[in-house]
Amino acid sequence: xxxxxxxxxxxxxxxxxxxxxxxxxxxxxxxxxxxxxxxxxxxxxxxxxxxxxxxxxxxxxxxxxxxxxxxxxxxxxxxxxxxxxxxxxxxxxxxxxxxxxxxxxxxxxxxxxxxxxxxxxxxxxxxxxxxxxxxxxxxxxxxxxxxxxxxxxxxxxxxxxxxxx
Length: 165
Hints:
The chain is α/β, with parallel strands linked by helices. The chain has a single domain (2-163), classed as Ribonuclease H-like superfamily/Ribonuclease H (Nucleotidyltransferase, domain 5). It contains five helices and five strands. The chain has helices at 2-13, 74-91, 104-110, 119-132, 149-163; strands at 30-40, 44-53, 60-72, 96-101, 137-142. A five-stranded mixed β-sheet has the order 3-2-1-4-5. This is RNase H type-1 domain-containing protein. One of its GO terms (molecular function) is RNA-DNA hybrid ribonuclease activity. InterPro entries: RNaseH-like_sf, RNaseH_domain, RNaseH_sf. It comes from Phytophthora nicotianae (strain INRA-310). Residues 27-160 form the RNase H type-1 domain.
């Protein structure tokens, strides 16, 4: 529990974590995945970001950004961020994935607590369900925005890079 608290403290206070961008890095079978989406305009220019963290060391194992599109909603961008996180976990051959997102809607939909009402989210939700089914163990946790700042930064970075900033 202490490592988890330290990890959250690092993300909320922007402290330095050991970095590893090597996709072939050996990791434990359990990872924390942080995902976020951003939309400027809602709908508008959208991006997403994800990162994997080794829960035993707090090391960032991988980060990824993706520009989603010019007319996407914030919730669609959140789902794209979740897909990105699940794909990173697959690439790192994780078996236990603990997803952390600041979108209560997406977390509750993935947990089956909320229905997916918006037509534009149904396909994205289904794709995420299929990706998550590839893992023996997946959990979805809603976290405060302050505990997801690095994924938020990555999501906005995707839009900024697309805009040429």
